[in-house]
Write a structure and sequence with these properties.
Layout lengths: L9 H7 L1 H11 L1 H11 L6 E4 L6 H10 L4 E6 L2 H13 L5 E5 L12 E7 L8 H9 L2 E12 L7 H12 L15 H10 L5 E11 L3 H10 L3 H5 L3 H17 L4 E12 L3
Parallel strand pairs: 1-2, 1-4, 2-3, 4-5
Antiparallel strand pairs: 5-7, 6-7
Length: 271
Amino acid sequence: MSEALKGFDPKSIYDEASRDYEDAARDFWQYISLRTVERLGVRAGERVLDVPCGSGASLVLAAERVSPGGTVVGIDYAEQMVVIAREKALSAGLANVELSVADMTTLDSNQEPFDAVVCSLGLFFADDMPGLLRSLCDLLRPGGRIGVAVFGELVFDPMRQVFVETVAELAPGLEVLQPWRRTEDLSVLRGVFEAAGIADVDIVTDDDRLPLRSPDDWWRIIMGSGFRRTIAALDDSTAGELRKRCDACIAENAIDHIVSRTHYAVAGAKT
């Protein structure tokens, strides 16, 4: 695994977490994928690429928006995520969806071009982020556009800090890997686009207040997200104590919501 990700393996983590991811995503981050599609303004008849498509939230919405006559291609290299996305598409009766398991950094640039590319919560998993943006823009037809969503400086706060600090107390030396922090700073995100040769990018930032109905909700987030990797690195006893302390913090401080910040970037093909 690359130095950039410090041993964080998205494929294995999200394959293992796929069902828990789907459960937590509905309440705590699915809206990000949906807004990315909305900000791109995909239209009937368009050909859209969704990468990484995850469990299919943006894929289904985009497929509905491009009908009739349009197509959505979904790519993810976590096989179980693609399984769930396919289930969603079938359940919605969508016949204009193509899904496959593949690495988003090695897509064939000779395929039929796309009108739009959706990249929600995936950019920060690429070793070479400008390189990924360049390759995705190479898949666009003239006049095409790309929509990218990344987490900002706030992610599930204040419980993220509690989690990280408690891990440090219980397991000194174990780093809580957070690849999404690579692009949390707005200037860094703009710099990635500039390095990719994309000069004209429009970025909007939203802060969202998400209800935390019980301590169980927080653990749903942990087990359905990249934080699951930290739990896998702990023994059962330590993981149990970690959850106990997080639960106590929520109860003692009457924490009934968390806040997440998201940067949404929309740009045309690179210059």
